Inverse folding.
């Protein structure tokens, strides 16, 4: 019997470089409150958000992905031709098919890299990092570009009090490649489909198009969220997931340098840090204050800011933890590139 040849991979994988794109248009709370009968004070107290960024028409999902990827590749010292796979985590690429990853791979100048999108909402980037680490170690790719990108402003109902002040736009990208030592710890991930309805697109495509008797209703498929149950779930259940990711990586809270939770709400960030009893010295990502909740883009955007502002240094141990619609979640310890 002929044995199928194996594909030896690298012993370990790591994030080699990170890049981001922050949309040019800054939107302060003052701009969103009138349509939702809210106030700057309420938004800051309940969510920690001072302002967010919304993309201009030119700042498309593809454009933002390419810009973030170029910076990630440059920082990693990797040429586009060395990228074997492009994974884009997004829920706001408004074409059902093809995957935006194929256009991104082409525009970057990869040599026919494998390319596909994944849909794991706010947990998408951490899912992508886990897949990429396994690809590099399993031998199916040398270098993988993982992109988290959203234009949630396209899917946000500006009159919806529960979401209009939260969601925002942006992109972050990471180059994952071979490493001498483990740079991406074991993933702890999962889902709770019983809570499928808590954050979801309100309309499916049939509602958008209408019925044969009422064609073309013309509604945008907006996102809706039952914020409070998600808030309670995230504040408590996710701290356990973070602890499991630390345990599986063999890293204690005392050894951690940086905590980069999904930027959903400043109070959730604080509640998780308290439940995990993170020591004072652990630096905590708080990008949400100026960036809003950018779903799949939030973790790379937040980590990138910490690197640029000198709060995270190359080689630091960082706990990433992401959660959102599904409900889906994923966490892992990584070394900062
Ligand atoms: O990224 C994916 C994961 N997403 C998340 O993790 C988001 C989790 N959820 C949240 O961040 C929070 O639930 C929100 C920030 C969305 C809301 O905060 P909350 O503390 O859960 O508020 P709530 O829905 O319990 O509402 C509290 C009060 C209510 O008034 P009463 O009944 O106490 O008089 C609401 O009517 O605040 C009122 N309210 C508002 N007031 C001003 C609700 N929305 C608003 C608003 N502006 N936009």
């Amino acid at each position: 019997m002929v044995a199928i040849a194996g594909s030896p991979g690298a012993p370990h994988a790591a994030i080699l470089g990170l890049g981001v794109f922050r949309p040019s248009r800054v939107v302060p709370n003052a701009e969103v409150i009138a349509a939702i009968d809210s106030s700057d004070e309420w938004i800051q107290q309940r969510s920690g958000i001072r302002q967010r960024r919304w993309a201009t028409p030119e700042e498309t999902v593809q454009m933002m992905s390419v810009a973030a990827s170029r910076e990630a590749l440059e920082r990693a010292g990797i040429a586009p031709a060395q990228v074997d796979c492009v994974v884009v985590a997004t829920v706001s690429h408004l074409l059902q098919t093809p995957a935006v990853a194929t256009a991104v791979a082409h525009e970057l100048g990869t040599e026919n890299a494998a390319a596909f999108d994944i849909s794991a909402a706010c947990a998408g980037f951490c899912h992508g990092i886990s897949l990429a680490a396994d690809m590099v170690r399993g031998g199916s790719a040398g270098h993988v570009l993982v992109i988290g990108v959203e234009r949630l402003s396209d899917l946000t109902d500006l009159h919806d009090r529960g979401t209009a002040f939260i969601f925002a736009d942006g992109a972050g990208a990471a180059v994952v490649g071979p490493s001498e030592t483990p740079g991406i710890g074991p993933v702890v991930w999962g889902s709770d489909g019983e809570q499928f309805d808590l954050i979801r697109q309100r309309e499916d495509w049939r509602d958008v198009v209408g019925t044969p008797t009422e064609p073309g209703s013309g509604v945008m498929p907006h996102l809706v969220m039952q914020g409070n149950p998600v808030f309670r779930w995230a504040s408590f259940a996710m701290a356990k997931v973070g602890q499991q990711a630390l345990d599986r990586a063999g890293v204690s809270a005392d050894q951690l340098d940086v905590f980069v939770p999904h930027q959903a709400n400043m109070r959730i960030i604080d509640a998780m840090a308290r439940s995990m009893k993170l020591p004072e010295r652990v630096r905590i990502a708080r990008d949400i204050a100026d960036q809003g909740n950018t779903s799949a883009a939030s973790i790379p955007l937040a980590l990138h800011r910490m690197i640029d502002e000198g709060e995270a240094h190359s080689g630091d141990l960082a706990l990433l933890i992401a959660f959102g619609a599904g409900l889906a979640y994923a966490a892992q310890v990584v070394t900062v590139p």
About this structure: The chain has two domains: 12-179, 188-335. The first strand starts at residue 12 and ends at 21.
